[in-house]
């Protein structure tokens, strides 16, 4: 079964920005991240799904990875510049048996910007 990469499209500020520093009606950083991810081919076994909120607002743009029977992850402090690394990490996650990609095989942003790891839901 495919892994799902959930991408918050409503993230307003990049990590480190002051609250309220977004430009009102301008395209939100989360929407730009979604566009960057959808403009590239999705890795085999990965379904990219924009969502309204991952509730990690203080952590900049965020994504989550999950699949049946696998550990799930939430990553933050991301931007559209990270799209290639996110897709690489999602591909490695999808190819894993249990969602536990060896630390050294993860893209750097997945090693350093993990916000949560959630046990498989049985």
Give a written overview of the molecule.
The structure is a single chain. The protein is of the alpha+beta class and 122 residues long. The chain contains three helices and five strands. It has a five-stranded mixed β-sheet. It starts with a strand and ends with a strand.
Strand order, main sheet: write it out.
Answer: 2-1-3-4-5
Q: What class would the helix/strand composition place it in?
A: alpha+beta
Which strand-content bin applies to the residues?
15-25%
Largest sheet: 5 strands, mixed
Number of continuous helical runs: 3
Query: Radius of gyration, rounded?
Result: 14 Å
**Helical proportion, percent range:** 10-25%
One letter per element, helices H and strands E, the order comes to: EHEEEHHE
C-alpha end-to-end distance = 15 Å
Q: Which residues sit in consecutive blocks of at least 5 with pLDDT less than 50?
A: none
The residue-averaged pLDDT reads 91
Beta-strand segment tally? 5
What overall geometry do the principal axes of the alpha carbons give?
Answer: globular
At a glance:
The chain is an alpha+beta fold and 122 residues long. The chain has helices spanning 29-39, 83-95, 108-112; strands at 3-8, 46-51, 61-66, 72-78, 114-118.
Highlighted features:
122 residues, alpha+beta, five-stranded mixed sheet, 24% helix, 25% strand, globular
Write the layout of secondary structure elements.
Elements: E1 3-8, H1 29-39, E2 46-51, E3 61-66, E4 72-78, H2 83-95, H3 108-112, E5 114-118
């Amino acid at each position: 079964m495919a892994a799902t990469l959930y991408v918050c499209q409503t993230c307003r500020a990049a990590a480190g920005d002051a609250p309220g520093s977004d430009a009102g009606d301008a395209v939100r950083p989360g929407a730009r991240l979604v566009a960057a991810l959808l403009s590239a081919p999705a890795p085999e076994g990965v379904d990219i799904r924009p969502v309204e909120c991952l509730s990690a607002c203080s952590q900049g743009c965020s994504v989550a990875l999950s699949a049946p029977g696998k550990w799930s992850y939430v990553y933050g402090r991301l931007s559209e510049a990270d799209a290639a690394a996110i897709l690489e990490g999602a591909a490695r996650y999808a190819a894993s048996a249990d969602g536990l990609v060896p630390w050294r095989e993860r893209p750097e942003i997945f090693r350093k910007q993990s916000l949560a790891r959630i046990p498989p839901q049985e």
